[in-house]
Amino acid sequence: MLDGLNAGPTARGQVSRRSGAALAVIGTKGAPGTSECAASLAERWPAVLVELDALGGALDLRFAGGPRRGGLLELVRAAGSADGVVGELLERWLADADGWPPVLLGPPEFERDLSELAHPGAVSNALAALRSHFPLIICDLGFLLAEGMHTGPAACIHREALLSADAVVLVIGARGQQIGHGIAQLGLLLGPLALPPERVFVVVNGCGGPASVSRQSLELTFAAALAEGGLAVNAWLPWDKRALARTARRGYPLARAHLRGPYARALTGLLDQLRSAVPGIARAEASF
Questions:
Q1: Alpha carbon distance 243, 222 (integer Å)
Q2: Cross-referenced InterPro entries, in alphabetical order (predicted)?
Q3: How far apart are CA 116 and CA 127, in angstroms?
Q4: Which CATH architecture has domain 21-55+136-286?
Q5: To 5 degrees, how large is the angle CA 221–CA 266–CA 207?
Q6: What's the CA gap between 267 and 20, in Å, rounded?
Q7: Comparing C-alpha atoms, which of 192, 175, 185 is closest to residue 239?
Q8: What is the pTM of this model?
């Protein structure tokens, strides 16, 4: 699996000079399709997909029943150990399935291990370890960034991943309540987290789907909401009924399920934007 990504393990005691890029994909309340977007992006690149949804992600459900020999928690512990050597262990920890990129799953009982994963530096050290072995890491994050006036352990995990990433993709659903949640989430990314606008890419998912707002109304709403931050919608991902049906049958990521479908074509446009706008991604592709 590692050889297929052209990223063999680093020898024990040897520090790798390679550094891959990290992309964080985050959504909002209301299930806007974040995990599908993250999985489809990872499937299109030589990447490893990391489940970092501290609320309990959808990826673990997709791989339910398969053998588990380790995952995110084991990587966090190894990266924080004295020698920090993880290369020879990654092969065992990565989940594999037909049509999927290599996946590093979260712990089976995320809630039980939250405090360990939320320890300052735990997530960033784990991602740094992955960067030395893969050209691109795509993190599937949970939406929670704050809990009232406090930042609980789940929010701490998500925030640390966002701040460690080279770029952030915010997935917003095209239905009424999802739009409001998305605009509020963008405010957190640009406000309290102070992410540079040039590192934030906005995706509207489910356009033309059931109960979605019309494309014209969406364009007007987001033009006004994003203008203050100097942002625009980077990709409009359409509702792809055929891809959804094939995903349900075969279990593939959405873009893989219908390679020439409208969702996959729109995602290709986002890939091109990320490649040209984020130097770390282009360097990673060229150097690995």
A1: 26
A2: P-loop_NTPase
A3: 15
A4: 3-Layer(aba) Sandwich (3.40)
A5: 40
A6: 21
A7: 175
A8: 0.90
